[in-house]
Each structure stands twice: as C-alpha cells, then as structure tokens.
Amino acid sequence: MKKHLLGLLLVAPWLAQAQTPTPYTLKGKIGKLSAPAKVYMLRDGKFTDSTALTNGAFELKGTVEAPQQVMLVLARDGKLKQTLANFMKADRTTLFLEKGPVMLTSADSLTTAKITGSKLTAEHQKLQATLKPANDKMKALMVDYRAASPEQRKDPAFMKQLDEREEAISAESKQHYLAFVKANPNSPVSLGAVKQVGGAVPSYAEVAPLYESLSPAVKNSPEGKKYGEMLQAIKAVSIGATAPNFTQQTPDGKQVSLADYRGKYVLVDFWASWCGPCRQENPNVTKVYNDYKTKNFDILGVSLDNEKAREKWLKAIADDQLAWTQVSDLKGWQNDVAVQYHVQAIPQNFLVDPTGKIVATNLRGDDLRATLAKYIK
User: What structural domains and CATH numbers belong to the chain?
Assistant: First the structure.
C-alpha cells in the first residue's frame, strides 16, 4: 500500500488561462437536508469555505483567477473532522469553479449529484467515468487492507500481494489518464491527469514528455507554469543527474556531507519517526544494509522530524536498530536537504553511485535488493 493511502486526500488546483479574478456562484440542492448539515469546500489544499443547508439548498460565492478544481464534502452532522475520519466513505464530489453559475442537484448526496454549468466539470466527469472500474478495484483493495489483522500486515507475502494488486490497478488507471491527455491536450483537466500520472514522487523521464504534449495555453497557465517549474527542479535530482551535495548534523552534532561518501554507493534515505510506512520499511532496509555494508555500500539517513520530535527521532533510531549514519536539521518538511531534493512524500530515497551520480530512486522492498544486486557485484 505504497501510493494511494494519502493521495486521495490531495486536491490540486488546475488552472487555465485567465489571470484576473472572476466571480463564481455555486448553488446546490440536496434533498431536504437542513442544519446541522453543512457543505465544506476544499480549495488549494485546505478547507476555505462552508455553508449550512436549508431545506436542501446551499450557495457558495467567491472569485477565481482561472477555472479551478475543488472538492465539496457533505457533513450531515456539521462536523467535518468526524466526516473525514473515514475519507473513503465520505460524501464528496469534485467540480470546477468557473465564471458564472454552477448548479449541483441530488436527491440525497453529493456523490451522486448532477452538476451543470461547468464545461470543465463535464470533461472531468467523462474522465472519471473511464476511471470508475479501476477506482472500484482500489476501494476494494483498501477494504481488504483495513480488514487485515496486525499479523497479516506484518506478513511480507500478504503485503506483497496487496502491492501487486495496487500496481496493476495503478497501471490500469494510468492508461486512461494517458489516453485522456492525448485526446485533450488543450484542456486544464489534462494537466490534472498529468499530475495524477506523476503522483507524489514524479519520474521526470516519464512525466516531462507527457507535460510537453500539452498545448502552450495549458503549459503557460499559472498552474501549468508552476508544474513545469517543479519538473525542472525534479530534473536536477533525477536518474543520471549528479546528486547535489549537502551537509547536516548527526544527533551528536557531527557535520556529515554527502561528499564524504564519494567512492561508495550510498543510499540517501528520507524518513521520519512519525512516518508509519517508513518504519515498516526499516527492517527491509536494515537487512539490505547488513548484506551490503562490506561491499562498498552505505546508507545516509535524513530525518524529516522537527525539533519537538528530537527524542522520538532518537528513540526510533534505537528501536529500529538503524546502524547507519543519521542526520537532520530538525525542520520537518522544511528540512533543507528535503527541499533541495524536492521530497514531497516519504519514505523516499536516492541511490548514488561512487562517482556521485544518481542511478535509482524510490526503492522499496525487493526492488531495493534487486537494484543493489545489479550495481554491486
């Protein structure tokens, strides 16, 4: 379960050409629901607006600099936090805010609502219709994961079959995204599809050509430019690039640089004490380290813990028996090295060869061992 547990909570703004604020009006009618029921709007990655329902009706107004995708969430008891506790079952929908009125109607829920007045929303709904079979499979996979016992989740064979199912579903979804982008290069919805293909940790080699296939209008939109700039940042730490040097402190205050490892294969491993998937992967990394530590290989751990979590960081190092060097500036997600390497999700790692060149990224489980076997004889 490597990619999708968090991705469902991320909604990025997909912007088109206009850059001056224009008004929008979103009106809805959901049966006869009334307070305490409320509709919340997720915009730019945070909840920015909400309104109570009266006899099923609600209205949200504002401005957008360009058409923008948002998510609406219905909290029937008015309590957003409780509603989001089980996000997969949350009553929600996505739509585009555009100039003029957008209307949403449903007998009982946002999920089944009919949305009119937005051309881009119609395009997005067509894309979502093609993705529905894969999305249904992913929901079933998540149900199986949640139903698994703690013992099953620790069983490598059980988790491997879940990962294989996830990879197959992701490949199925990817084909639909690629087909949509190819058929709709001038649509802002296609920029969103490109982002979905890239995920939290985009591969420059895969995503850059797809981004370049978009029309100039989409690439030159505010969000198009932003994503293009991000791809250039990723290029600097992509396979084949020279790994940027950095220096940070160990827990005992020693300054350690990546350059100190020149002449060896080194895995730069980004993690944190609070990161469940990181902690789950640590036993695998430890086994690989023990097998290769005498073969011109080392690991340099970079923690995204913050100053308040210093003791938890040290405890995690001890509890997980991480024998390799650990560094951090204890700035959390603003860790200077994480920013330098454009780390957007953890666990994440970069395999650097003896000359300082990045030869592989994002290695997990069997992939880590297989890649080291390829390079280290």
Answer: 4-115 (2.60.40.10), 122-235 (no CATH), 247-375 (3.40.30.10)
